[in-house]
């Protein structure tokens, strides 16, 4: 069905906004490395390779266009991490923001965790829209008056001022990871969070920075025996004792923190059996899981490996309940994808608000949506060409062999430098944020007008 | 239905998993065909693909420098010509700098922070 897909038969995705520079000369610092909506969807945060965070805020719906959901405009931007040098190992520590995770809002301020390879920071983003004026002890410019000239009592009064959004680092959680942090996840208890690197997972209290508990350690006594690393980890959305972590061998382990202090023994092991006759040099590499995400319901989890997206029922460890092919045509290109390192690209995936549709990125600035209920999938493209306001995105198709139809693109014409690794879905509405190398695209569904 | 699978042509269309497995019985699966190609180009590639070598390289990710002076010099060079780096080769050699830095070479100032273009 042309034009539709994702979120039911009648969802049509339209271009809404694009952020970032148009020119093709991309500075390395501008490469977007993470995208995340907050819990209400009002705020959208991005992190980049230069260690900067940009937060966009959704404008309230305008009266002129009641059917158009608000646009996202810059709310705050700050330098989260700086490049560091590890003097002991003579290694550079990149400032690239690997992940951003929002805390649920508890008061007027917003809080988020941002992390690079080694250090996690808790940032407070607060608004200031009032300023006290009318001090009788100070002049306008702040100089103190001569006390003898003060003859009356005057209490300063708050006056409105232009909105100022301030970001300040409230906690720095450092020196707990020998290897590179790939994930952070806030617990549903809103008091703790986990951080995972290649071999270990640590549990932190958001208030305490000088101590963290190690809850998973898969480092072998002899590094020669190393066979797999941790690739992603996440807390269960409502069970505060449960978390999962995925591995480079395509397995997911579910752990229960009530079972023991060190969760090296998993409670559940999710692994799809493999046909040994099909095994090749590439099998393990393409089975490496690059992202794991619980559904909002907490009943399912989704994993992304190089070629597929898999949905797992937490009650069944033996195999996924659904498998979706993202770009199966790449299976016959694995040799070149290994040579140009693309086979190691880490794609993320995300659920829509009611867990009915999942989305993930691909190459050539394509991204894919899979509707679980209607069993439909669609390929869309984030490009400047389809960027006219409210223009409906046309489904794209990759031609894998034989005669190429008009509007199809052949596998050999795909641009493997244009990869969409990071996507995010608004927690309630059909609004998605899709990051190309250095641009952020925002798409919305075209609300069907009510007659 | 038999299909000739060559290394240079995309062999399988959107065949399902089951079809591919069936084909694997009679002809080389696309994955195995790609493996043959790779082994032809890199005959020294070890038998254990996902194993220690690849993983250890991943654990050591991050450019190694000779010392902090070397690091600061490399940073200064990057600021001058900010561009997307070439695709890194699969076998990344340890980089230890072009030459031994002297006090005159090392920049004094910390470079100023540039705002993100997303906020522009």
From TrEMBL, chain A:
Q: Per UniProt, what is one GO molecular function of this protein?
A: protein phosphatase regulator activity
> Keywords on this record?
Repeat, WD repeat
Which branch of life, at top level? Answer: Eukaryota
**Gene Ontology, cellular component aspect:** protein phosphatase type 2A complex
Q: How does it assemble?
A: PP2A consists of a common heterodimeric core enzyme, composed of a 36 kDa catalytic subunit (subunit C) and a 65 kDa constant regulatory subunit (PR65 or subunit A), that associates with a variety of regulatory subunits.
- Family according to the record: Belongs to the phosphatase 2A regulatory subunit B family.
**PANTHER family assigned to the protein according to its UniProt record, in alphabetical order:** PROTEIN PHOSPHATASE PP2A REGULATORY SUBUNIT B
Full protein name:
Serine/threonine-protein phosphatase 2A 55 kDa regulatory subunit B
Query: What is the organism of origin for this protein?
Result: Salvelinus namaycush
From TrEMBL, chain B:
Keyword annotations of the record: Cell cycle, Cell division, Cytoplasm, Mitosis, Phosphoprotein, Protein phosphatase inhibitor
Mind telling me which Pfam families this protein's record contains?
A: Endosulfine
Q: List the subcellular locations.
A: Cytoplasm
**Region: Disordered, residue numbers:** 1-26, 80-120
Gene Ontology terms describing biological process: cell division
**Gene Ontology cellular component annotations, sorted alphabetically:** cytoplasm
**What is this protein's record name?**
cAMP-regulated phosphoprotein 19-like
From what organism does this protein derive?
Salvelinus namaycush (Lake trout)
